[in-house]
Write a structure and sequence with these properties.
The protein is an alpha/beta fold. It has helices at about 15-20, 35-45, 95-105, 125-135, 205, 260-265, 270-280, 290-295, 300-320; strands at about 1-5, 25-30, 65, 110-115, 140-150, 160-165, 245, 255, 320, 330.
């Protein structure tokens, strides 16, 4: 039985990944301060968690996953950073370290941290290196790599840095991750989307479409038309830049729908429908809450690949094996 703790848990991508793998697990707790994310998580996994902060938290998991807020590391954000003394959203990663330190002998064997690759930029890498040093001082061996969702079957050019910290001297080998061929974006798109709220009609947005402005140099000022894959799913699609837009018949373009964004983060239509019951869309309006929940999540299939390696390296020793299709199953 794998005990997992999700900090800054969002809509529970780590738990979804373990469910997809068929891994025997228990979510011993989930910490998320965003009330809307908590309600969505409860709807997906039939839990009754309440919003709570990571500050001062203490528990004993096998795997701790944290995706502390990335806005202040993001290249499209204000670059406020995550320095220990800062009171930025991204500096909450230090609360995770305090939680681990307070666990004493019950520290988790694995700690997985996901964030934007902007943490490697020269004006941000000081905080990242400090995080690695602090984890080493707590007895962990760190490995990190920038992973793209494209390499795990999802047609989204979402690059995120994943840091895997193993208690003791074990080293996570990213070359063992099972890569998958990227599926075409058409497999994730809804058919016959004609609802007015998804059509791009505002002149200021139409004027930013790259096809109409091919010489634009600043990618943060143009809208890309999606071909075989999209850009990063963010918390909003009606802004520039976004994940890309869809060319329709004739001179018409549209945004990605909420359902498409959830599919591109690795969640099923059934998952989407459960959360939609909690946050129904208003007629003729885009659902800002549903978009935000997707954009703040982690691509499930990337976590699946990471957890699969962790299970095989340790938990898998006596409890798991592969069937003929290469799927993880119980012995």
């Amino acid at each position: 039985m794998i005990k997992i703790l999700e900090l800054f848990g969002g809509i529970g991508a780590p738990r979804k990944a373990l469910i997809n793998l068929g891994a025997d697990h228990k979510a011993i707790d989930y910490v998320e301060i965003d009330e809307k994310a908590v309600r969505a998580y409860n709807a997906l996994y039939d839990n009754r968690y309440r919003p709570q902060s990571v500050v001062g938290y203490n528990l004993c998991p096998d795997i701790l996953v944290h995706g502390s807020p990335c806005q202040d590391f993001s290249r499209s954000g204000k670059r406020l950073g995550g320095k220990d003394e800062d009171k930025t959203r991204s500096s909450l990663m230090w609360e995770t370290l305090r939680i681990i330190e307070n666990m004493g002998a019950w520290k988790p064997k694995y700690v997985v941290w996901e964030n934007v690759k902007g943490v490697l930029d020269k004006d941000m890498i000081g905080s990242f290196n400090k995080y690695l040093t602090r984890m080493s001082e707590l007895g962990y061996t760190n490995s990190f790599e920038v992973l793209s969702a494209l390499d795990f079957g999802i047609p989204q050019r979402r690059e995120r840095i994943f840091t895997i910290s193993i208690l003791g001297e074990g080293v996570f080998d990213f070359s063992k991750l099972r890569r998958k061929a990227t599926r075409h974006i058409s497999e994730f798109l809804e058919e016959d989307v004609t609802d007015p709220q998804y059509m791009i009609t505002i002149p200021s947005m139409l004027n930013r479409i790259k096809e109409f402005n091919p010489n634009a140099v600043n990618k943060y000022r143009t809208l890309d038309v999606i071909d075989d894959s999209c850009w990063t799913i963010t918390t909003r699609q009606d802004r520039c830049p976004n994940a890309g837009i869809i060319r329709m018949n004739g001179p018409q373009y549209r945004y990605l729908t909420e359902r498409e964004c959830w599919r591109l983060m690795g969640f099923t239509d059934e998952d989407f429908e459960e959360v939609l019951k909690e946050y129904p869309s208003k007629p003729g309006k885009r659902n800002a809450t549903i978009y935000k929940l997707a954009g703040n999540s982690i691509v499930v299939q990337v976590l699946e690949a990471i957890f699969e390696v962790l299970l095989r390296e340790d938990f898998a020793t006596d409890a798991y094996a592969e069937n003929q299709q290469g799927q993880l199953q119980f012995l």
